[in-house]
Design brief:
Length: 68
């Protein structure tokens, strides 16, 4: 999966699940597609699950570290 496909999947989850914030959607999809990276990001300053203000930090980190 390419990074752009990951972001599209996050966007789809966010659109389909109005009860979730974007950061929650992003971290849920990350857990689904790359659980090791999810565990690495969780609890750091780049963890956007609880704070949508850090979504950009999370996306920037993931884009740099993404493996296709």
């Amino acid at each position: 999966m390419k990074f752009e496909e990951f972001v599209s999947k996050v966007d789809s989850m966010y659109a389909d699940h109005k009860e979730l914030r974007y950061g929650q959607s992003l971290m849920n999809v990350l857990f689904e597609v790359w659980p090791d990276k999810y565990r690495e990001v969780t609890g750091t300053d780049d963890d956007c699950f609880y704070d949508d203000a850090t979504v950009r930090l999370t996306l920037d980190r993931l884009e740099k570290e993404w493996k296709e």
